[in-house]
Every structure is written in C-alpha cells, then in structure tokens.
Design brief:
- The chain is about 35% helix and about 20% strand.
- It is of the alpha/beta class and about 210 residues long.
- The protein has a single domain, classed as Alpha-Beta Barrel (TIM Barrel), CATH 3.20.20.70.
- The strands form 2 sheets. An 8-stranded parallel beta barrel has the order 1-2-3-4-5-6-7-8. The protein has a two-stranded antiparallel ribbon with strand order 9-10.
- Bound molecules: ligand LARABZUK.
- The site of the ligand O=C(O)c1ccccc1NCC(=O)[C@H](O)[C@H](O)COP(=O)(O)O has 26 residues, from strand 2 and strand 8.
C-alpha cells in the first residue's frame, strides 16, 4: 500500500521524509496554512530523496499558473482538490503530461461514482468540510466506500492518525493512504508520527 504525506513546507520536514521514505509527499499550492510557492517547493524538492515522488495539490488553479508551478517545482503528479471538471482535467493532462489524481470530498457514494467518470488516473477520497477543501483533519464515513463501486485505484484521506489507522486499514482496501494533520504536532510535521505511520502501513503490507 502506498503512502502519501501531505503539506510539507519546511526543510526539516523534508529531512524527516528522507528518513522514513513515504512513496509521495505533497506540496499544497492552494489557500492553506500549508501553502508553498513554486519556488519554495523547488528548493524543498531539491533536498528530497529522488525515491519520493512530488505531488502538487491545487484547488481550482488557473491552468496557466498550474502549468508554470508544475514546471518550476518539478512535480511528478498533479492532485486536483477543487471543483475541476472533465475539460479542465483533459487540458492539464495535455499541457503537463503528468499523472493526475482527482480528490473527492465524499458525502455520499454518488460523489465517488461521479468523480470516477472524470479523466483522472486515480482518486483521493477525502472528508467533506464546508470550511476548507482539504487538510482538515476530519474523518469521513468509511461506510460509504462499501456503497460505491470503485473501479479506479484510490487513496483514503481525511483525519487519519496513528491511533485510527490500524482499525481503518483493517476495514478498507485502498491503493494508498494520504495523511497531513495526523502527522503534525503544533502545526508542524512530527518526525515520530511520520515514522509511526510508515511502521503501521508496513505491518499491514506484511
Ligand atoms: O492540506 C491542506 O492544507 C489543503 C488545503 C486545501 C486543499 C487541500 C489540502 N490538502 C490536501 C491533502 O491531500 C490532505 O493530505 C488531505 O486533505 C488530508 O488531510 P488531513 O485530514 O489533514 O490528513
């Protein structure tokens, strides 16, 4: 199972990622306390172990700006976390040639069914919140996953922590997990929590 750790924005957080080697780290380019610029992401990415892929998280970003950030930061994958539609996603693929993940803020199974008709490669199933598009630390209702016929590889996200991961992993079969708030203490990434998440997921792989 793949692991994405999202919202890294400080050099020490990159050091922690290099120590524990998640499959992906995410840079948030949307409005958020975790927001980084293309230039900051480029500098952080230069310190990152090349084994770890860089995912850029965007919310309804104007296409030109997304392309320019993607090039500057040397992103491997584009994660669309807003209300991006079929046409926009096709344009992103055409202009960047990158793998695309579409985030779904899940309320019902219908949200998932609708999103999997979009031309994205993978889905990232996140909790719904009125306040923010993502990174809320809110857990979704995982029962919804059983009501949807999910044909694309998907990540589960939203409020995952070292405490709830073992139970969630026992009851779901995702392609990967995505975690941000749950590996933070006082708003910054926590080396020990990052290490623990990797340990828990490896245990599941075995
Ligand atoms: O992380 C953010 O601050 C953020 C802001 C706006 C849009 C998306 C954002 N994050 C996207 C992610 O992929 C998060 O990892 C995902 O929402 C899960 O976050 P969390 O519940 O904090 O683990």
């Amino acid at each position: 199972m793949r692991i994405k750790m999202c919202g890294l924005r400080r050099p020490d957080e990159i050091i922690y990622a290099n120590e524990c080697l998640p499959d992906y780290i995410g840079f948030v380019f949307a409005e958020s306390r975790r927001k980084v610029s293309g230039e900051e992401a480029k500098k952080l990415g230069e310190q990152l172990d090349p084994l770890v892929k860089k995912v850029g998280v965007f919310v309804n970003e104007p296409l030109r700006s997304l392309i320019s950030i993607s090039e500057e930061a040397g992103l491997d994958i584009i994660q669309l976390h807003g209300d991006e539609d079929d046409e926009y996603i096709r344009e992103v693929r055409h202009k960047t040639g990158k793998e695309i993940w579409k985030a779904v803020r899940v309320r019902t199974a219908k949200d998932i069914q609708a999103a999997q008709e979009l031309p994205a490669d993978k889905l990232l199933l996140d909790s719904f919140s009125e306040e923010s598009y993502g990174g809320t630390g809110k857990v979704m209702d995982f029962a919804v996953l059983d009501q949807a016929e999910i044909r694309k590889p998907y990540f589960i996200a939203g409020g995952l922590t070292v405490d709830n991961l073992p139970v969630i992993l026992r009851n779901t079969e995702p392609y990967g997990i995505d975690i941000s708030s749950g590996i933070e203490t006082g708003g910054v990434k926590d080396r020990e929590k990052m290490r623990k998440v990797i340990q828990l997921c490896k245990r599941r792989k075995a």
